[in-house]
């Protein structure tokens, strides 16, 4: 039976799928399956006329007067032969323990499914509807209503007798009744009424909109959404009514409740059934269409729509055409919609078929996404709902997504997704790599191969490297740099690179990559040779990292030629590994490089390379004259005579002046400044530095016949030499440029000196007076004398033990204290 049910489900879904529009991208809200097993057997010989749904079971009525109790899978659990003719309605109470049945021959039965309680009645007309009280199981609610030409209420009274009473009549046959709580809603030929069972008052009448439709062919559909909300569907009109309490001030002779229509709208097709779905509605519609072949109106497949009610219209959420058996022969009255509250299960009943519609779960959502090839969204949905999905696995969806991307030619995206989807599964990684190899796309996946946790077989990485080596040297070099050397067999890759270099021995990319491979293999000597040949920037890092200083003793010139700054810094930082003498010796034939090294050495330490200071004089003179004078000034080890000789040979005046002055020959130095440089400012500056009166005398004598020099002296001599000495020696009639300004400056300098002296004198006097007053105040202060003080002469306490006796004490400002009688000469101390 179960196998047959699965076949029924698959065939129904297939037929429904065929009916959907291929181009539709909107996901359906419901999924469908046929109720099979026992239902299939029943409908092969009989036809369904009605069905009622309880949370525990289903009750199905047929045209041959049978009532079947079914489980939710459609298996028959119980059968009742009620009548030889059509069952019109089955009603269950909320407990599911009592059932009411009515048939076309006027029979009405109400009985307990698990008790002997039973009621039988036969009317003289067909009874279309019966409804038992929702709380029928309780003794004081033993009530049910029937609908034929009259609405009759049956109540069990004294002695278990059933007492009928007419609630309504005179408006045609009653074809539908829904009982919820204390409210009964029914529909007759004129419209829909609601009765309040507490007050036994009818509180509303909702008239039928389209009176042209036959009520027996297009019956009214009623459904209680909750205890106070009634949904009415009739023809192509839908109304949602709310039962409300009337305000006390408005009652008068009116019922204490009234009904307000809160939503009202028309549908495209005829309503065959209604059910609530949260704040939305599920509507079963009967559809007619014009046949393309015969151009005659015929019955089409029924539709199940989900709509969002609006005040005067509705918004369609989804719409599905249902392929039910024999739909071509069905009328609007042949379809019914029942639902199971709380489970979102909807049962579409037709004479030859029962279809169950249920809300789609996350597995169904993922199925639809996969069907539409929306793999990214399907994967995301599976990850979010991984704890609730039962049918799908995230890995399977991910692998399907990768295959889909590869089929579309999006190889890079497929490779990137491998990282997330394959995770740490090495077998799947290797399988996918081979798939990429088969389609010639190993390069696409190379960037995303795992390098740590997990690590694949070395063959995988070697295969990728060989792919790049054959077609992309730069890509190969990038992988070698990025990948750890332990991922692959280094020897194999080295040999492959060497083979390629035989074809192209000057290829810098391959040489650089080979050096990196040698480094991974700890063959640092070979790597260093390649780096030096290429003049590669990583050579210094390689030397430092692997302590290759012993290998570069004979390669110092190469390093200096490549980058002298870095090379010198490295050599100086590692003097203990390569001595200064060894470096100087290696650079003997390259004096310009030798100078760079010794200059840096001198900057770091003025004494380390002292034995080369004499050599450095020539090097500075040849390659770096601007730094010669600073070197001469800072060096205490260079021979001054040798330096003077070199500077004189090269006519380096400033350096010669410095050396002469340092050797004590200030007059010659001054003479050179005056004669060679003819710079009076430098001469004056030199005289100031030496602070020698004889130099000033020589400077005046040299300048006395040179007016520009005299001007310079007048402007600068005032603070070092008495200007009168210079002025007296100026010859009468000599024209001196800017003499007036120079004399004014001398006078100003003199006045400034006088002002400074006076100011200093005032400050000195003020400070002296202030200190004198402070000393006087200090000396006038009292001095504390107590028992702890002693006489500095006799070392006994300064104060007598008997305070009544007279005593005399002498206290000095230095805080020394004496008994007067202990002082050597008493008359030297004044009382």
From TrEMBL:
GO-annotated cellular components: AP-3 adaptor complex; clathrin complex; clathrin-coated vesicle; cytosol; early endosome membrane; Golgi apparatus; late endosome membrane; lysosomal HOPS complex
Compositional bias annotation for Acidic residues: 14-26
Localization (cell): Cytoplasm, Cytosol; Early endosome membrane; Endosome membrane; Late endosome membrane
Residue ranges of CHCR repeats: 568-712
A GO BP entry: protein targeting to vacuole
Location of region: Disordered: 1-30
SUPFAM superfamilies reported in the protein's UniProt record: RING/U-box, WD40 repeat-like
Keyword presence, Zinc: yes
Alphabetic keyword roster: Autophagy, Cytoplasm, Cytoplasmic vesicle, Endosome, Golgi apparatus, Lysosome, Membrane, Metal-binding, Protein transport, Transport, Zinc, Zinc-finger
Compositional bias annotation for Basic and acidic residues: 1-13
Domain of life assignment: Eukaryota
Domain Vps41 beta-propeller, first and last residues per copy: 30-359
GO molecular function annotation: identical protein binding; microtubule binding; zinc ion binding
Domain Vps41 C-terminal RING finger: 789-826
Pfam families per record: Beta-prop_Vps41, TPR_Vps41, zf-RING_Vps41
Membrane topology: Peripheral membrane protein
Function of the protein: Plays a role in vesicle-mediated protein trafficking to lysosomal compartments including the endocytic membrane transport pathways.
PANTHER family per the UniProt record, alphabetical: VACUOLAR PROTEIN SORTING VPS41, VACUOLAR PROTEIN SORTING-ASSOCIATED PROTEIN 41 HOMOLOG
Family: Belongs to the VPS41 family.
Protein's UniProt name: Vacuolar protein sorting-associated protein 41 homolog
Organism: Serinus canaria
Gene name as annotated: VPS41
């Amino acid at each position: 039976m179960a196998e047959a049910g699965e076949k029924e489900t698959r065939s129904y879904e297939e037929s429904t799928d065929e009916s959907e529009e291929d181009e539709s991208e909107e996901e359906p809200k419901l999924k469908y399956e046929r109720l099979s097993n026992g239902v299939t057997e029943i409908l092969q010989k009989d036809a369904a006329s009605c069905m009622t749904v309880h949370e525990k079971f289903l009750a199905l009525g047929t045209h041959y007067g049978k009532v079947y109790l079914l489980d939710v899978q459609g298996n028959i659990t119980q059968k009742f032969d009620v009548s030889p003719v059509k069952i019109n309605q089955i009603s269950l109470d909320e407990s599911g323990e009592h059932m009411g049945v009515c048939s076309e021959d006027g029979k009405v039965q109400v009985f307990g499914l698990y008790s002997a309680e039973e009621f039988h009645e036969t009317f003289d007309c067909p009874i279309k509807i019966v409804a038992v009280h929702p709380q029928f199981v309780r003794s004081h609610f033993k009530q049910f209503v029937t609908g034929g030409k009259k609405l009759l209420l049956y109540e069990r009274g004294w002695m278990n007798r059933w007492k009928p009473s007419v609630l309504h009549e005179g408006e045609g046959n009653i074809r539908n009744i829904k009982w919820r709580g204390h409210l009964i809603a029914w529909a007759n030929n004129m419209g829909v009424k609601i009765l309040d069972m507490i007050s036994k008052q009818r509180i509303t009448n909702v008239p039928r909109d389209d009176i042209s439709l036959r009520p027996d062919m297009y019956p009214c559909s009623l459904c209680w959404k909750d205890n106070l909300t009634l949904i009415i569907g009739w023809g192509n009109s839908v109304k949602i009514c709310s039962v409300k309490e009337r305000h006390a001030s408005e009652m008068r002779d009116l019922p204490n409740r009234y009904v307000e229509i809160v939503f009202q709208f028309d549908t495209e097709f005829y309503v065959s059934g209604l059910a609530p779905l949260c704040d939305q509605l599920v509507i079963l519609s009967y559809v007619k269409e014009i046949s393309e072949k015969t151009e005659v109106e015929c019955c089409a497949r029924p539709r199940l729509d989900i709509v969002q009610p609006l005040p005067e219209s509705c918004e369609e959420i989804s719409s599905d055409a249902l392929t039910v058996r024999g739909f071509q022969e069905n009328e609007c009255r042949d379809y019914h919609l029942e639902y199971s509250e709380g489970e979102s299960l909807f049962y579409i009943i037709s004479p030859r078929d029962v279809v169950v519609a249920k809300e789609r779960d996350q597995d169904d959502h993922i199925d639809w996404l996969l069907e539409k090839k929306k793999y990214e969204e399907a994967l995301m949905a599976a990850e979010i709902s991984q704890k609730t999905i039962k049918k799908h696995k995230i890995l399977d969806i991910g692998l399907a997504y990768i295959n889909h991307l590869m089929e579309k030619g999006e190889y890079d995206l497929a490779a990137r997704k491998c990282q997330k989807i394959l995770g740490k599964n090495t077998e799947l990684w290797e399988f996918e790599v081979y798939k990429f190899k088969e389609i010639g796309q190993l390069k696409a996946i190379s960037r995303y191969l795992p390098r740590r946790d997990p690590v694949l077989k070395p063959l995988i990485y070697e295969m990728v490297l060989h792919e790049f080596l054959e077609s992309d040297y730069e890509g190969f070099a990038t992988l070698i740099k990025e990948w750890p050397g332990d991922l692959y067999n280094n020897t194999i890759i080295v040999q492959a690179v060497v083979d390629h270099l035989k074809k192209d021995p000057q290829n810098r990319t391959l040489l650089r990559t080979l050096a990196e491979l040698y480094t991974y293999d700890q063959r640092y000597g070979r790597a260093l040779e390649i780096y030096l040949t290429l003049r590669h920037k990583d050579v210094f890092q390689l030397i430092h990292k692997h302590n290759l200083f012993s290998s570069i003793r004979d390669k110092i010139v190469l390093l200096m030629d490549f980058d002298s700054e870095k090379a010198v810094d490295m050599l100086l930082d590692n003097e203990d590994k390569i001595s200064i003498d060894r470096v100087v010796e290696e650079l003997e034939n390259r004096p310009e490089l030798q100078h760079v090294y010794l200059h840096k050495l001198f900057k770091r330490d003025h004494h380390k390379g002292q034995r080369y200071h004499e050599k450095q004089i020539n090097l500075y003179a040849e390659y770096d004259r601007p730094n010669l004078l600073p070197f001469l000034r800072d060096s205490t080890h260079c021979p001054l005579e040798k330096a003077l000789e070199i500077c004189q040979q090269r006519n380096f005046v400033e350096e010669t002046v410095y050396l002469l002055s340092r050797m004590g020959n200030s007059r010659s130095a001054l003479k050179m400044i005056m004669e060679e440089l003819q710079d009076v400012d430098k001469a004056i500056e030199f005289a100031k530095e030496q602070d020698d009166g004889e130099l000033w005398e020589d400077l005046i004598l040299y300048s006395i016949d040179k007016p520009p020099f005299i001007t310079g002296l007048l402007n600068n001599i005032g603070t070092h030499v008495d200007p009168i000495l210079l002025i007296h020696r100026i010859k009468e009639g000599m024209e001196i440029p800017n003499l007036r300004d120079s004399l004014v400056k001398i006078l100003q300098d003199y006045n400034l000196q006088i002002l400074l002296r006076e100011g200093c004198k005032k400050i000195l006097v003020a400070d002296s007076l202030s200190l004198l007053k402070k000393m006087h105040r200090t000396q006038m202060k009292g001095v504390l004398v107590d028992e702890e003080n002693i006489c500095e002469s006799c070392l006994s306490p300064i104060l007598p033990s008997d305070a009544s006796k007279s005593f005399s004490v002498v206290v000095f400002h230095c805080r020394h204290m004496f008994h007067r009688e202990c002082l050597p000469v008493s008359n030297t101390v004044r009382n």
